[in-house]
């Protein structure tokens, strides 16, 4: 007599499709996370520029900031520091003492007086100067 052919349950292909989709989504998420630039993941505060000496900038954090982002801090503008005004790239010589800026940095600060920001990613001019 003939043998019975065993059929797989109806839900098995659906379960396999769900597991495959979840694995694919997880792999895509982690691949994207690893390849995404990490810049900009930090803290932003508002300040007035006190002085500019070459590529060194001293700013005074405003009272509207968190307590840790008030007062004077120094930082250096490097080649990869983004300087912008209304979405347009500007140059360091476009900034002047007294300008209102938003400073985005890594969060690393040297404990000295005044503090020193280790890595500044972006300085955005907030004033309308022109």
Task: Please describe what this structure looks like.
By secondary structure, the protein is α+β, with helices and mostly antiparallel strands. It has a nine-stranded mixed beta sheet with strand order 5-4-9-6-1-2-3-8-7, with no helix packed on it. The chain is rod-shaped and about 95 Å long. The model has no long low-confidence stretch (mean pLDDT 87).
Primary descriptors:
1 helix; single chain; alpha+beta; nine-stranded mixed sheet
Structural class: alpha+beta
Distance between the termini: 94 Å
* SS elements, strand count: 9
Order of helices and strands: HEEEEEEEEE
Number of helices: 1
Shape: rod-shaped
Poorly predicted spans: none
Computed over alpha carbons, the radius of gyration is: 26 Å
**Could you tell me the mean pLDDT?**
87
- Largest sheet, strands/sense/barrel: 9 strands, mixed
Walk across the major sheet and give the strand order.
Answer: 5-4-9-6-1-2-3-8-7
The helix fraction, in percent, is 10-25%
Please identify the oligomeric state: single chain
β-sheet strand percentage: 35-45%
Task: Draw up the topology in text.
Elements lengths: L10 H25 L7 E11 L2 E6 L9 E6 L5 E4 L2 E2 L10 E6 L3 E2 L4 E3 L2 E6 L5
Parallel strand pairs: 3-8, 4-9
Antiparallel strand pairs: 1-2, 1-6, 2-3, 4-5, 6-9, 7-8
